[in-house]
Amino acid sequence: MSATSSTGPSAATVADIAEKAKLLSIYSMMSTTAAGSGHPTSCMSAAQLVAGVYFYAMKFDPKNANSNNDDRFVLSKGHAAPLLYSALAVAGVFPVSRVMTLRELTSELEGHPTPLIHGVDAATGSLGQGLSVGAGLAIGARMDKSDTRVYVLTGDGELAEGQVWEAAAFAAFYKLDNITVICDINRLGQSDPTMYQHDMERYRLKWESEGFATQVINGHDVPAILAALDKAKATKGKPQAILAETIKGHGFSEVADKMGWHGKPFSKEQLAAAIKELGGGPTVPPDPGKSYARTSLPKPPDFPPAPAPDYKADAKVATREAYGDALKRVGSVNKSVVAISGDVKNSTFSEVFQNAEPDHFVQGYIAEQNLVSVAVGLQARGKVPFADTFACFLSRAYDNVRMAAISRANINLCGSHCGVSIGEDGPSQMALEDIAMFRAINDSVVFYPGDAVSTERLVETMARRPGINYLRTSRPKFPILYKTDEKFPYPGFKVLTKSDSDKVTVIGAGVTLHEALKAAAQLKASGTNIRVIDLYCVKPIDGKAIAAEVAATGGKLITVEDHWPEGGLGEASITALNLVGAPPAKFKMLAVTGMPHSGKPEELVEKFGISAKHIVEAVKAIV
């Protein structure tokens, strides 16, 4: 909040930062004691570091704490939330009395930070993700030609997480000199000392090997902290790491550098002794109960209609190809769109967008956890990120998706090469659990298009919709099913074959939709009509509308999917029908069972029971 002078901080500035650090420690202790839970010792080790960032280095407006014009702070060690809340309170974002409502049901100040709090861009607490979020904020600022700097505070325990090093490599490769990571090396984990304890040389070598400008300091020496922050800010061409040797529980001799105090608040007697040892502190008045939560969170920016898709009626196009075309179309009218690919841009076809909008494309390489969390950082700057990889590899980033939902983030994920229909690559590349994964995410939408037109229109929808959006695309080329001006609302589905004499409703999506249409043609030739539904939106599902279609076919329903039976299209359909009190009278689910292996796509669709032949057999059995 204060300007940096060319001669370094004055004695008065140093004294002011030291006093604020003392307050941050005391408020952290007071709030955790009041809550009866929390992590005071983890806050105390980083109090001087956070005071230096907030009250010396950062450009920060407490009245507009998430401003794109100012610097940003990410608390990767989210369990030190009381320290962050204390800093925000001392800065003037909300009164200090509010910090004392920590962890209460009616308080926005939860046990770990979320963006419901002014000044927080992403939920943290699942350790190892903060640097990736910070990298997304930093690269987004670069796209905006902004002088925003990003500060990320990590703990030393979380440096055992591989994602930290994914993010470090990413930041160094892109020469993100607008990001400074500050590592609180306090030596003690939850159950044991950390892997390297206070081996600061080991940490220095690790960060330098990734390409960071690295400094090792005493994390309780305020002049050293301020000098390190000045040096980091002056560094050009590479990100910076400030490695701070600290003491967990610093300032209270009863607990300092002692195991067994992680996540344990102090008793009232211990609190009084700690405050006395720190030199005393102010009295905090009772909190009046006013919430300071953000009343609205950022939404994707609106944009004018994109040009219509352009496909010949007799074309065959893979939905993964259409994804790239759609990004290009939407990106031409929405300059907030950013694509980030996990080194598969030539398979997901996001390279089509890259060729059109090179400044808005990011190569994420094979680091899927970082890929998703960078997208969270990008959206916090108002970008509309689309992150793509093979659908099966999103499973390793599932925790990042879960945390993105807690962040109320607006991110779009495309998983390609789903199911056994990818063919010869074999089961390690076949996503068969991704629908279940994304259905379980709060406020998510799951789209599974069956042709190029629906893919393109759903990408447009994703670019406008807040929340977690997942698009499941396929490798095989499919015929065009829809006119280019067709609309695809969500929840929603399309009825592709229908007559008054339909005997059963068949629900498919992606490759199985086309198998269902083949089955419908074969059955019609033998005198049996079926109703085929394209369930392009697997979540949410309009249960009442589906129920009406199933009722019209005598309550008989077959679902068929290129996915495991657990959690997929079939279970989603049955759940939707049960929720509206309209379970089918007869039901059969066709899904992949048994471990797949390599083969031609058509062989695998046949072998694993989701081909037109099996649909015909299921119809005959259920009718």
CATH architectural name of the largest domain: 3-Layer(aba) Sandwich
Write the CATH homologous superfamily of the largest domain.
Thiamin diphosphate (ThDP)-binding fold, Pyr/PP domains
**Spatial strand order of the main sheet:** 8-7-9-10-12-11-17
Number of strands: 19
Describe the biggest sheet? 7 strands, mixed
Q: Tell me, rounded to a whole number, the average pLDDT.
A: 97
The CATH class name of the largest domain reads: Alpha Beta
Rounded to the nearest angstrom, the radius of gyration is: 27 Å
- Helix percent band: 25-40%
- Tally of domains: 3
Any idea of the CATH topology of the largest domain?
Rossmann fold
Strand content: 15-25%
Précis, in short:
This protein has 623 residues and is an alpha/beta fold.
Helix and strand topology:
Layout: H1 11-35, H2 40-44, H3 47-57, E1 72-75, H4 81-91, H5 96-99, H6 130-143, E2 150-155, H7 162-173, E3 179-185, H8 200-210, E4 213-218, H9 222-234, E5 240-245, H10 268-277, E6 316-318, H11 319-333, E7 337-341, H12 345-348, H13 351-356, E8 361-363, H14 368-380, E9 384-390, H15 398-406, E10 411-416, H16 434-439, E11 444-447, H17 452-464, E12 468-472, E13 477-479, E14 494-497, E15 502-508, H18 511-525, E16 529-534, E17 537-539, H19 543-552, E18 556-560, H20 569-579, E19 586-590, H21 601-607, H22 612-622
Parallel strand pairs: 1-2, 2-3, 3-5, 4-5, 7-8, 7-9, 9-10, 10-12, 11-12, 15-16, 15-18, 18-19
Antiparallel strand pairs: 6-13, 11-17, 14-16
Helix pairs in contact: 1-3, 1-4, 1-10, 3-4, 3-9, 6-7, 6-14, 11-17, 14-15, 18-22, 19-20
